UniProtKB/TrEMBL annotation:
PANTHER family in the record: HTH-TYPE TRANSCRIPTIONAL REGULATORY PROTEIN GABR
Any GO MF annotation of the entry: transaminase activity
Protein source organism: Pseudoduganella lutea
SMART domains in the record: HTH_GNTR
Listed Gene3D superfamilies: Aspartate Aminotransferase, domain 1, Type I PLP-dependent aspartate aminotransferase-like (Major domain), Winged helix-like DNA-binding domain superfamily/Winged helix DNA-binding domain
Source species, domain of life: Bacteria
Lineage, broadest ranks: Bacteria, Pseudomonadati, Pseudomonadota, Betaproteobacteria, Burkholderiales
Protein name, entry field: PLP-dependent aminotransferase family protein
Length: 460
């Protein structure tokens, strides 16, 4: 380890070598690679290095930030900045179980985050960013939400929209606001697990309604309404989770018509609409008074934006929803909501979403090629439904995939009825590196091609 009292590393800068902060970061990376700098070596203080190189302090700060982003440096408080030890991958698991957006193609997400937060803090009064917002979001946040939903609904009154901390919180609040303990909630036989989790927690009962390749069967819905007198109907009609099916417009109109005739409340959970290729209009456009519409930014931008927009036309139901939400979540974090608003207003959200969409389609193309014959993905969204050969069952396959270092989600996780499909869901966005995803998909393909081995539990 070098003498910490006299750090001596100095990079050479070229007159026409590009931005100086990148030259410094590149030189640092090269010095680590060739052994000139070793893990634990202390870097020159930023002011010292700026003086030695004849550049301003901001250039050195940006260079050190870039080096930290590359995992080359680590800060140790007042002791200074040091060359970081190489990162060790402690887990070999390839996670195809978590439905998150893939890293956006052609978008510098780190820079977008820094710029967005900088704009928020520069333009906003910090007071409102650190206090309570009890009205379902600020006026600016609701207007940004209405702008975000224009592709679905055109222009509409932002006063009918509420901002809340994610779609799961919205679903839970709607169950509390619009149903009573013991009520029935109708859903398709395979559906989003968060619905079942919330309904069970609140003492409501999920009843499965038969679905075909186009979604919930209208005649079966009408029959279930007369039989069960449901409090809500839950639908996820676009790139449905987990099957990736999109309900056609005709079916949406039929279900909207039943909702009107039977005075049903439909919760339309629609996180993937903006990722789909030419999706039909939301069900809410055909029965606006009967349908509550949820759109979250977590599935099309990034999970860290715990911001969802909820459209409720009925003012009395909007107030009931807010009362229910405050009982467990109170509000969306104002700083996060302000960042979402900034990104929507300045166009960053559209660029980020387009990058996510482009990368998702590349990954679907890869999966379709590798998993030909078993793959039900349609080229959009974040996930696909992988049908298993008869010699595999879902629990066997999920366990075998786990032994191969791959996490998948079996059909049982999505079941609302007593029967399940012999399939697993694979999520294509959670693995950052496309090459690692390709390797994982190839391992799944190899696993599908061979029959399961007898299972024997280890005894220790």
């Amino acid at each position: 380890m070098q003498d910490e009292h006299l750090p001596i590393w100095l990079p050479r800068l070229a007159m026409h070598g590009g931005p100086r902060f990148l030259q410094i970061a590149d030189a640092l990376q090269a010095a680590v690679a060739d052994g000139s700098l070793s893990p634990g070596d202390r870097l020159p203080p930023q002011r010292h290095l700026a003086a030695q190189l004849g550049v301003d302090l901001t250039t050195i700060t940006r260079a050190y930030d870039e080096a930290r982003r590359r995992n080359l440096l680590e800060g140790r408080g007042a002791r200074g900045t040091y060359v970081a030890a190489p990162k060790v991958e402690l887990t070999a698991i390839l996670d195809l179980s978590m439905n998150t957006p893939p890293p956006p193609d052609g978008v510098d997400f780190d820079d977008m985050l820094k710029q967005g937060l900088s704009q928020v803090l520069m333009r906003a009064d910090n007071g409102p960013l650190m206090t309570y917002h009890l009205g379902g979001g600020s006026d600016a946040d609701r207007k940004a939400g209405a702008r975000w939903l224009e592709p679905m609904f055109g222009q509409f009154d932002a006063g009918q929209l509420l901002v809340c901390p994610g779609a799961q919180a919205a679903i839970a609040a709607l169950i509390l606001a619009l149903t009573e303990p013991g009520d029935v909630i109708l859903a398709e036989p395979t559906t989003y697990p968060g619905l079942r989790a919330a309904a069970t927690q609140f003492g409501r009962h999920i009843v499965a309604v038969e679905a075909d390749k186009h979604g919930m069967v209208p005649g079966m819905l009408e029959q279930a309404c007369h039989q069960h007198k449901p409090g809500l109907v839950y639908l996820n009609p676009t790139l449905q989770n987990p099957t990736a099916a999109t309900m056609p417009e005709r079916r949406r109109k039929e279900l909207a018509g039943i909702a009107k005739r039977c005075n049903l409340r439909i919760v339309e959970d629609d996180p993937y609409w903006l990722l789909a290729d030419a999706p039909p209009p939301p069900i809410a456009t055909f029965a606006p008074e009967q349908v509550v519409y949820i759109s979250t930014l977590s599935k099309c931008l990034t999970p860290g934006l715990r911001v969802a927009f909820v459209v409720i036309r009925n003012p009395h139901e909007r107030e009931r929803f807010l009362v229910a939400l405050r009982s467990f979540a109170l509000m969306a974090a104002p700083l996060t909501a302000a960042l979402a608003t900034q990104w929507i207003v300045d166009g960053s959200a559209d660029r980020l979403m387009e990058g996510v969409r482009t990368e998702a389609r590349l990954r679907h193309r890869m999966a379709r090629h590798i998993l030909a014959g078993r793959y039900s993905g349609v080229g959009d969204g974040l996930h696909a439904w992988l049908e298993l050969p008869a010699y595999w069952n879902t629990s066997q396959f999920a366990r075998a995939a786990g032994s191969e270092g791959i996490a998948v989600t079996p059909a049982e996780a999505f079941a609302t009825g007593s029967t399940t499909v012999n399939a697993v869901r694979i999520s294509l966005g959670s693995i950052q590196d496309r090459g690692r995803l390709q390797a994982g998909l190839q391992r799944l393909s190899d696993l599908l091609a061979r029959r399961p081995e007898p299972f024997s539990a280890a005894v220790v």
